[in-house]
Design goal:
The structure is a single chain. The two termini are 25 Å apart. This protein is of the alpha/beta class.
C-alpha cells in the first residue's frame, strides 16, 4: 500500500467495503472463527476497524497477523501460514478473502480456497484459481460461505470466477 493510502486509513478516510461489517458480525454470531491475515501495518488495521466497529473490534478476531508479525509481503504465503498455525486449523477448514492477485497467490499457496472482491485498483488482475470472484460482499451470507466452502472441496481444481 502507498503512503497516501496509509495516511487516508489513519485519517479515517478509508472505510470497510460494502457488506464486510455485516458479514463479520454474522460470521462471528454464527460461531465461525475469524482471523486477519494482512501484510499492512497494525496501526492501519486498528484505525480502519476501530472506525468501523468501535474500540472493541479485536473481540471478533481470534488471530491477527500483520506486517509486524509476518514481514514477507504477499504473494509470499507467510502471513496465511502463520495465521493457520495460530488458529490450529488446516487450510481445508478455512476461506480466505482477498482483493488482489498477490493476495490470491498467497492464499492459494497456503492451501486456502479464496473469495475475491476486486477493487478499482485490482479489477484488471488475473484471479484464476479463485473459488469465487464477487463484485462485493453485500449479498453474501454465512450460508453462502458454507456452501461455497463445501463446494471448494468437491471439485477443487475448477476455478469458479
Amino acid at each position: 500500500k502507498t503512503a497516501a493510502y496509509e495516511k487516508a486509513v489513519q485519517d479515517g478516510a478509508v472505510a470497510l467495503r460494502p457488506g464486510v461489517l455485516r458479514l463479520i458480525e454474522a460470521a462471528f454470531s454464527d460461531g465461525l472463527r475469524l482471523a486477519i491475515a494482512t501484510t499492512t501495518s497494525p496501526v492501519n488495521i486498528s484505525a480502519l476497524l476501530r472506525a468501523a466497529i468501535g474500540p472493541d473490534w479485536r473481540q471478533y478476531f481470534m488471530v491477527i497477523e500483520d506486517a509486524s508479525t509476518a514481514p514477507r509481503k504477499k504473494p509470499h504465503p507467510q502471513v496465511y501460514l502463520q495465521t493457520l498455525q495460530r488458529l490450529q486449523l488446516p487450510a481445508r477448514a478455512c476461506l480466505a478473502f482477498e482483493d488482489s492477485e498477490n493476495g490470491l497467490h498467497a492464499a492459494v499457496a497456503a492451501g486456502l480456497a479464496t473469495l475475491i472482491t476486486p477493487n478499482t485498483f485490482t479489477a484488471h488482475h488475473d484471479f484464476k484459481g479463485a473459488l469465487r470472484v464477487l463484485p462485493s460482499l453485500l449479498d453474501v451470507s454465512v450460508a453462502h460461505l458454507r456452501a461455497w466452502h463445501a463446494e471448494a472441496f468437491v471439485a477443487p481444481a475448477r476455478a469458479r470466477a
